[in-house]
Design goal:
By secondary structure, this protein is α+β, with helices and mostly antiparallel strands. Helix content is 35%, strand content 14%. The strands form 3 sheets. Strands 10-11-12-15-14-13 form a 6-stranded antiparallel beta barrel. A 5-stranded mixed beta sheet has the order 5-4-1-6-7, sandwiched between helices. Strands 3-2-8 form a 3-stranded mixed beta sheet. The longest helix is centred in the C-terminal third of the chain and has 29 residues. About 1% of the residues have low confidence.
Length: 546
């Protein structure tokens, strides 16, 4: 059989030559054997005989001699690393310094040597760091397993601007997904950076089943998370530990170890967010295009409603190509693994616990500056209780009897601030932040020294934008501030007031009094006495003193 393209695989040639050498040792080698091998590889029979001669020189093993090629020296490797993997820039620098060796080397030869010495992942790492190098790595895949065998949890920032009480913000989503069926078991949404509050709420929603929660949920066998401090909080670990779920703490910057939830994050960014108003990565006509102040953004409530609709569509209508084109609901329904559903009243372990026992007073339970009240507190004044709460959601708390842990019920916040008071507190905080920014900017401008622009090589010259008077005023202000900080007015007592001082009477010391704290002025109608004027100093003379 003759082939159009000759086989150049060294291992195949070695196998064919080994067979021919064996026949030669047995004195059974014929010309037909050599011709058959030559036709198979698409070469002349003389080439096959040269292969056999090469094997005879290397202990009956075909060992082709590679042609001499240009290789990189350590100096050239350092130049490639110095220019961040830019072989063209490294080649120009080496040519300029004459460090390419005695024989001239073309750029094509140098580039071929670079691509031979380094892998594509290593070159990508030189250009963009470890994050770019990881894109060329290969990874193993886990077994699918059964439902609730493993969950994966993560945070993802929405690529959509949302109107949150008149402010543009990008919400965060915290969700848990079942690795066997790719079903989203539960999620929570936050208008700010997520915390353990979001995780505890998402855990509670993911565990519950039925009704609005859907058929997905139950108690997982293990949960894979990253090394976020919120995921590693004691409350989140305790919540999973009570259910017997093992928490697998994955190393940072390894998204391939929780590929199921990372695929979900990628899906919502590419399938859902681009179709919403306020998409962050929408194409623009210019990079300097200003934000449209009249742009209609989704409200926070509308964003959550549309997100839940997309999650329902993902769970019931989205078909997974790698899973026989079935939906997560079909995968979950076809799996007959038993599911453990904890009692909803026993899910209080997903709440934070106040470290001290509180007391039911006549006006309710006091927690810090908050006051909680509930109907079941009637007749329980003086009872010690344990308070559980959801972080950053203190409008409602759960109370338990401190003696036996009996669940008493929820309690509602009574002294909640009004919206007007909240706005005033927020505005006061904004004014204080603005004052701090102004002070920091002023200090930065004084601390940084500015230099004049130059067009020729010269020493840096400070810009003369400060006068002697300005420098003296700044130094005097700093000196007065230091003296004021070091002052000890209580160290030496003040002298007693004299008769010429104007002191306050008890009536003048009342609030609203404007009595002056100055010495009395002379009467203009009194006779003028020149003796009361101060004596002028004597003028100096040039006469010598005795």
């Amino acid at each position: 059989m003759t082939i159009e393209q000759p086989l150049r695989d060294t291992s195949l040639r070695r196998a064919a030559v080994s067979r021919l050498m064996f026949l030669a040792q047995q004195n059974s080698l014929t010309t037909d054997h050599i011709t058959t091998v030559a036709e198979t590889f698409g070469v002349h029979p003389r080439s096959v005989r040269r292969w056999m001669d090469n094997a005879a020189q290397h202990n009956d093993r075909y060992t082709p001699q590679r042609p001499a090629s240009f290789t990189l020296t350590q100096l050239m490797r350092d130049a490639v690393a110095l220019f961040c993997g830019n072989s063209a820039a490294a080649y120009r620098d080496l040519c300029k310094r004459g460090q390419l060796g005695g024989d001239p080397v073309s750029y094509a030869t140098f580039h071929r040597a670079v691509t031979t010495a380094y892998t594509p992942g290593f070159l990508a790492g030189l250009r963009g760091g470890e994050k770019e190098r990881r894109k060329f790595d290969v990874h193993f895949t886990r077994d699918v397993g059964h439902r609730n065998q493993a969950w994966e949890g993560d945070h993802v920032e929405a690529s959509v601007w949302v109107n949150v009480n008149g402010h543009r913000r990008k919400p965060w989503i915290t969700w848990f997904i079942d690795c066997a069926s790719d079903a989203v078991c539960g999620l929570s949404v936050s208008a700010q950076t997520p915390s353990r509050e979001n995780i505890l709420l998402a855990i509670r929603v993911a565990i519950l089943r039925g009704g609005d929660h859907g058929p997905f949920g139950g108690s997982p066998g293990l949960v894979r998370i990253d090394r976020g401090k919120d995921f590693l909080s004691d409350t989140a670990e305790t919540a999973f530990g009570i259910l017997g779920a093992r928490v697998v703490d994955l190393p940072p910057r390894h998204p391939e170890l929780k590929g199921t939830v990372e695929a979900l994050n990628h899906a919502v960014k590419t399938m859902h967010f681009p179709g919403l108003p306020g998409f962050v990565h929408a194409p623009r006509t210019s990079r300097r295009t200003k934000k449209d102040p009249d742009e209609r953004l989704l409200t926070y409530e509308a964003f959550i409603r549309i997100l839940l609709e997309w999650v329902h569509e993902w769970n019931h209508e989205h078909r997974i190509r790698t899973r026989d084109n079935r939906t997560p609901y079909e995968l979950w329904h076809d799996d007959l693994t038993p599911i453990y559903d904890p009692d909803p009243e026993d899910l209080h372990f997903t709440l934070e616990v106040h470290p001290r026992h509180l007391t039911i007073n006549s006006d309710g339970v006091h927690w810090g500056k908050r006051l909680y009240l509930a109907p079941y507190m009637q007749g329980r004044a003086g009872t010690k209780v344990v308070l559980r709460y959801m972080p950053r959601q203190e409008r409602t708390v759960e109370l338990f009897d401190a003696k036996d842990g009996t669940y008493l019920g929820p309690a509602v916040l009574q002294n909640e601030a009004s919206p007007q008071e909240r706005r005033e507190v927020r505005r006061a905080a904004e004014r204080e932040a603005a004052r701090l920014r102004t002070a920091l900017d002023k200090a930065k401008s004084q601390r940084e020294e500015r230099f004049e622009a130059d067009t020729v090589p010269t020493a840096p010259r400070p810009a003369s934008d400060m006068t002697h008077e300005q420098a003296a005023a700044l130094l005097d202000g700093h000196r007065q501030s230091e003296l004021a900080r070091e002052a000890r007015p209580d160290l030496i007592p003040l002298p007693d007031p004299t008769a010429t001082w104007k002191t306050q009477s008890p009536a003048e010391s009342q609030p609203g009094s404007t009595a002056p704290l100055l010495p009395p002025l002379p009467d203009p109608t009194a006779s003028w006495n020149p003796a009361l004027l101060p004596t002028p100093p004597e003028e100096p003379t040039d006469e010598p003193h005795d």
